[in-house]
Amino acid sequence: MTFNKIETQELPDIQSVGSLYVHEETGAQLLHLANDDTNKAFTIGFKTPPYNDNGIAHILEHSVLNGSEKYPSKEPFVELIKGSLNTFVNAMTFSDKTIYPVASTNQKDYMHLVGVYLDAVFRPKLYTDEQILEQEGWHYHLENADDDLIYKGVVYNEMKGATASPDSQLYDHLSSQLYPDTIYQYNSGGVPKAIPSLTQEEFLDFHTKYYHPSNSLTIVYGDMNISEVFDAIEEYFAGMDKAETIDLSLRVPEPKEKRMEATYSITDGDNPEGKDYLALGWHVLEPSDTLDSYGMKVLDEILFGHNQAPLQKALLDAEIGGDIESDVADIGYPTAFVITAKYAESKNLDRFTEVVEDTLKDIVKNGLNKDLIKAALNKITFQTKEAVISEDNPRGVIYAINALSTWLYDQTPYDRLQFSVYLDELAEKAEQGYFEELIERKLLNNDLRVEIALKAEPGKNDKLEAETLEKLQAYKAELSEEELADIVDKTQALIVRQETPDKPEDLERIPMLTREDMTTDEPDYPLEQSDLFEGTRFYYSEQFTSGIDYVSLYFDISDIDAKAYEQLSLLSDLLGELDTKNYDATSLQTELDTHTGGINGTVTIFEDKDGNLKPYFVLNGKALSQSLPKLAELMKEIMTTTSFEDQNEIYKLVQSYISDFENRINFRAHIIAANRALSQVKPLSKLGEHLNGIDQFNYLKTVRDEIKGEGESSISTDLADGLKLLLSKRRFNILYVGDRAQSEQVKTVFTDAFADLPETALGETAQFEAGERHNEAFVTAQDVNYVGLAANARGKLAYTGETQVLSTAFKFDYLWNNIRVKGGAYGSLYLHRRNGNVALASYRDPNITKTLDTYKALPAYVRDLELSESELLKYIIGTLSPLEQPKSAPNRGMTAFSRYQRGITTDDMIQLKTEILDSDSNALSALHQSFEELIKDSTVAVIGNKAQIEKEKDLFDAVYELY
Question: What is the pLDDT of residues 470-490, one digit of tens each?
């Protein structure tokens, strides 16, 4: 082994010991975070500074995973996902680095992942296969000489969607203005108009320069045999010389412009009034500013943590924008602090900056409220404590990203892994005016700042798309017949490549687990219960939660009609945000942040095996065990005494919820489309639409408009009546997740707190129905589409291990190849839930009809499916993988409660795993007729580009403007 240990560091905050190693020959550094976590992680990263907006780092991130020397199949990455028990497999491009993280709880599987990723990054096939850049980056696409010439490529289409978002555009402008003449002025993901400038020569040169061991940083995390990892790495480092060190440090220059205006696109014909964005951004940090980096996070919480926070409230009260956001933006070497006003008017930019400056000056002059500082510090501390027991994302991957945020710039990798020492120091310095001084130093007296007005422009994207097509038409007109034929030939050759299966011998090279490595074992998620009030229950799941008590109050709403669910969803969001009997909204937030980890409402609906729905209005709370009485007091206060009289405050909150949904449209519209289609075939999904789908979005806009309208809004009375209806002992149930020693105290404290609830009986059980069936389209200003199709599988296709194996085949073979590889979409999904929900959706998709045709051909794929034993085994392993994902302690408790409500037992889960392991290829293909029935009985919902939807309007029964 030629890795030499140079230092060791105790890291109690993440329950690890850090050891830093240096590779003798290449100088490559490796950080080993040793602990007893079985969810092992491996991350290798490279400094990848962009030199323009062509997206080279991003395209390379995709491309190295398209075959390598040892593993020459077209997409080993996908084969890994199919046949691995991974808990995480991905690749990520940041502004100045690219990382490749993997994780698994199985040591054998972990080493398979490490080996494939190392071969991918150091010995990719892209040097000998130019079609990789064409597929993943961009190419001229012309299937026939008479067709329109277009650009196509996975990253090209991905970035058409990503850069359409005003939030993304705002940050691009901020970076280009705040950090001119540096690598941070560029979008490392790529800008669509610049991506087609990337050449194969540039592509290869970039990999040769930056994907070198000397330019790598590796983080290994968890309980493992580290020598195996060293041996795997040494295979690629051996014989390599030390290369030039890439230095990413910089002197931050003066901003390019102190103030700028730009535009973003809204739907053609839409009214731009009140849809501008305003932003104020400062350069505030460099990697060595460790204490201030934690300080800025706490300051952000102090100033903007909730609507009553001083700067958030000042901007909302000044009616600068309908929604205010802030961010400590880790751009790379530099960090910016950004304040954004959405739903604003560009003419108010001066007023925006004036309110910010005046409020900050007033805070410095009069001092921050000490309780507010204490509350913010407690909130950040609670979040970091809770993160240590989280399993929702592998901790090893999160810690790797944290370590790289300083290590990449030649600082110690440990600073962002030792939060308690810095938070303790901040608490001490807060008494000496640290945060007021931080405001002066980083904001008020900081000339490294920019002001941006981003104006809404109707139809801008349509104009840009038309310009692109016109440019391509002009280019095509200049081509000779031979040049035109060459593009057609290359297009057809790429299609042939995409349609040609990998050679069996290439697929066999990819390491895989065996059936013997699989198990049908299922952890037992304990759930005990006892009587509470008449007909209600106290549920308890024993979990190690590191001294945190998780308490959820479940109010039975099975007698409340569907039409009330839109209001119930809003009600759940408002709890904890408004005045109560004993606290105004400001002091309530301070109490919550000081004594708890948060209290929030939601509406949850369980569906059992027979299709019966069990809906609950839920109030969730969490706190350290010593704060349990205070948690109960505050949950009682919020649930029983919230006032809805302040309609101006409700208006501000509703506007922020509308903004949140619009952000979801930009980044998760495929989920919205799938759920919308499902709402027309399933009562459960229709209720989901009322709660958090397009129905809820439209309801929120109606509430907003009524509050600001000429007439008097009834929303205050409606919400108060809705809350009152919930308050009955007959509805009241409790779920507690935590230490057994606390369970009786939790039951007693909360029973006493809510003992004075009335005993109003529930009404008759409500009957719920699916929505009206018709194919819908929803127009946005985006250049891409999200194509959803859904059906109810009950009575047509059983939920079994075999159908779940087919789900894996759909996701990682049929849909991956046809929607992403051939179709050019960024991604797709397929789901088949135990309750009968079946849905397909595409993500950032240039197509509509072609995608729907692909969905409709699914039965033929099933009919013709012939899997070898090794292919079948991959899908079996890939199907078991999500069932083996580690869960955090609170999620284990929630899983226990959810399974109980749905009637799912441990034996059911063991049976499902057994069916998966026993799956047979012939039995899978025999299911094609069931899929034919599903497709015939399906509905469609599309969210996407206006021009394309209008062009294909015959597909739809109704077309709507989404916003």
Answer: 999 999 999 999 999 999 999
